[in-house]
Amino acid sequence: MNAKPPVENHLSAPDSRVFSHVDTWVFDLDNTLYPHTSRVWPQIDERITLYVANLFGLDGISSKALQKFFYHKYGTTLRALIDQYDIDPTDFLDFAHDIDHTDIELNASLGQAIEKLPGRKLILTNGSRKHAENVARKIGILDHFEDVFDIASSNFVPKPERRAYEVFLDRHGVDPSRAAMFEDIAKNLTVPHELGMTTTLIVPKTFDPFRESFEQEAVKTPEIDYITNDLADFLHKVLARPSAKPA
């Protein structure tokens, strides 16, 4: 894979929604609330590959190929393994998230911004609650969130499926027209935008060799109101200019 060119710090669509009406702030976890230099996702990806290898008795290359096939066809490897092989999802999640948190750094600027956001703050993740809490605690932001809606909360239906968002909104009583969604994968913002949420795509500052290129692209579509490679700085600008587009 070739490294993608850097993007501007913040990009906005011409008709992007502003944030003055937002009273609920919804954040994805992995590769959204921390940078890829935290080495969280590469470890999870390796653990998933190992799980697939152990389950099917495959070598590393074959298990990686099967894992990616599952991911592209079903949205997550876990969903494929539940639907096709009836695995225990709790065992899978515990195995996949058994990682080293050493490289996750405290992000005081992000914590200050999230704390100041007016209204409710929630995490919506395809990972487990335990994983989200462990990572958010290490970043120093866990106490700013009301709750974590994890993959088990949606009965293991993952983003970007509409049902995952509908269950989340219903469970927490969120009005999507008064909510904002922050996410690192463009396709996961399509449904939130259709439901009325203000959407922001988080892209890495530098190319992440452990993720596929399409997962890192600054995709400019009608479903994405904003694109940023610095979430903390972006939120501080939102706080300073809630009724205008962050510059």
**In percent terms, what proportion of residues is strand?**
5-15%
Give the CATH class of the largest domain.
Alpha Beta
- Helix and strand content put the structural class at alpha/beta
Rounded radius of gyration (Å) = 17 Å
CATH superfamily heading of the largest domain = HAD superfamily/HAD-like
Task: Classify the fold: give the CATH topology of the largest domain.
Answer: Rossmann fold
Number of helical elements: 9
Task: Spell the H/E element sequence.
Answer: EEHHHHHEHEHEHEEH
Distance between the termini: 31 Å
Walk me through the structure:
The protein has 247 residues and is an alpha/beta fold. The chain folds into 2 domains: 10-38 and 105-240, HAD superfamily/HAD-like (Rossmann fold); 40-96, DNA polymerase, domain 1. The protein has 9 helices and 7 strands, in the order ββαααααβαβαβαββα. It has a 7-stranded mixed beta sheet, covered by helices on one side. The longest helix is centred in the first third of the chain and has 17 residues, at 40-56.
